Amino acid sequence: MSIYEDTFFMIYCCVLAGVFGAVLGSFLNCAAWRIAHGESFVKGRSHCTSCGHVLGFLDLIPVFSWIFLGGKCRYCKTKISPRYMLTELFFAL
Description:
Layout: H1 3-36, H2 64-68, H3 82-92
Helix pairs in contact: 1-3
């Protein structure tokens, strides 16, 4: 295996681990909030904590959704705590 193939493989593994970490951080954020508020984290769709609107696919992309939406809900424009994005980033790292 040449150094270029080895480097590509290492970068691929790091990116894959980062994506998996961000998704895991997002799930743990959701589970923690739902348990604290008496909701089931196993069933039910993700929703805005303020207006209750069910979130779509583009609203659920870890880190990027928070950045692209400016830290606000797409539907009711309520501010979303940066804690969610920071937890996802922490787990990605």
